[in-house]
Amino acid sequence: MIANEYINRAIDYILDHINENISVDDIASHCNFSKYYFSRMFKIETGESIHEFIKRVKMEQSAFRIKIEKGRSITDIGCDYGFSSSNYSSAFKQHHKLSPIQFRRCIKQKSLLNPVFRNSIGLESFEECDKKISIEILEDFLVIYERHKGTYRNLSEHWGVFQEKNKDYITDKTLLLERTYDDPSITKIEECLYDICITVPEGCTLENTYVLKGGKFAIYHFKGLVNQIYSSFQNIFNVWLPQSNFEIDNRYGFEIYRKIDCDSMFMEIDLCIPIK
Prior knowledge:
single chain; 276 residues; Arc Repressor Mutant, subunit A; Multidrug-efflux Transporter 1 Regulator Bmrr, Chain A; 8-stranded antiparallel beta sheet; 41% helix; 23% strand; globular
């Protein structure tokens, strides 16, 4: 768990400005710390230096764009993240061990292996996937959150501890949400970043709160077992988005837990993908 408020503030700043040429100085200044002190603090808390984190996020988010925006040129995508054509190809290959062109050719096949449960998956047709998706406008959510970096294998345990810790804020109107920042077919599973959240009423004064922005979303209405969630995301990313008339925007997606059977692990979850 990443519990340090200032580190989370820095991560939020990086994620919100990842398309810009941000520096360690910018981030330390944003958090009101000296560059050298804050750099040490960030490395201790996350296991990565600020520079390494920024570079990795740029490489993985741009790879995600290559995956879902099949009609866009690799040069344009790299440019979005501040790279020239030659610099982007070199940096991409160093990080992913493939050139951007090779990555685009093989990412769909790579996506068919669930890195959490180590099983192969199949993809739905566009028509099958489209039947499960609705386009909706969601309100903002005020939430208490807890940020984690690492495998999703311990997610149910994290949820149990988080709910017990915040039980005084849970009512029959509380929603359980999970904000995800990475596609685990691209990001190493031990480096995936996610927030577990519960909604709270306006006026909550806890420090670990933020407003999870609403807006326009494509919502995949998932019904199934926990080990099938990954394949539903891959249906959205590999099948629905490339063939639909919609484009994902720069917000991060999240999930709303509607029903959970803890014995069978059958779930009903809204997978909310932000679109323009």
